[in-house]
Structure to design on (151 residues):
């Protein structure tokens, strides 16, 4: 049993050339026993298809803010609540700027805001949303804990 066994990871895939590496990330997380839910931005879908990520993750891929998981679930809230970890790879300057500024205008940025601040103002809480960006620009990894978000 690994430390990821039984954990739910939400992987955001944005529109950078490194988006193809999302397949390797999904495969590695699944191999470690994690459940993986993928959010694919419109720009990310220009580099990799939802079908590929769905096949590897064994879960539907979220691409639209207004898709309902079930009739009673609101997608961005449901994904934020089930996530033990939100990982964004590649983390483009666009998504990092949205998170930092509190802009929630697509599925990934909305899930990030809901994850960081489920009961508070997104714009205020976005300043507490910490990202780790290693040399080379990707990925940004945010650990979700009961007392907030930390890297």
């Amino acid at each position: 049993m690994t430390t990821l066994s039984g954990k739910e990871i939400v992987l955001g895939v944005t529109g950078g050339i490194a988006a193809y590496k999302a397949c390797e990330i999904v495969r590695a997380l699944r191999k470690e026993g994690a459940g993986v839910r993928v959010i694919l931005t419109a720009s990310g879908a220009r580099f990799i298809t939802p079908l590929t990520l769905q096949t590897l993750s064994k879960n539907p891929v979220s691409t639209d803010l207004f898709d309902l998981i079930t009739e009673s679930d609101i997608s961005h809230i449901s994904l934020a609540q089930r996530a033990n970890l939100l990982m964004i790879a590649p983390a483009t300057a666009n998504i990092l700027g949205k998170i930092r500024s509190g802009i929630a205008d697509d599925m990934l940025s909305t899930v990030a805001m809901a994850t960081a601040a489920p009961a508070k103002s997104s714009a205020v809480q976005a300043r507490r949303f910490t990202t780790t960006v290693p040399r080379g620009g990707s990925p940004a990894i945010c650990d979700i804990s009961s007392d907030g978000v930390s890297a």
Remarks:
- The chain is about 35% helix and 20% strand.
- Helices lie at 22-31, 50-57, 75-82, 93-101, 107-116, 122-126.
- The longest strand covers residues 8-13.
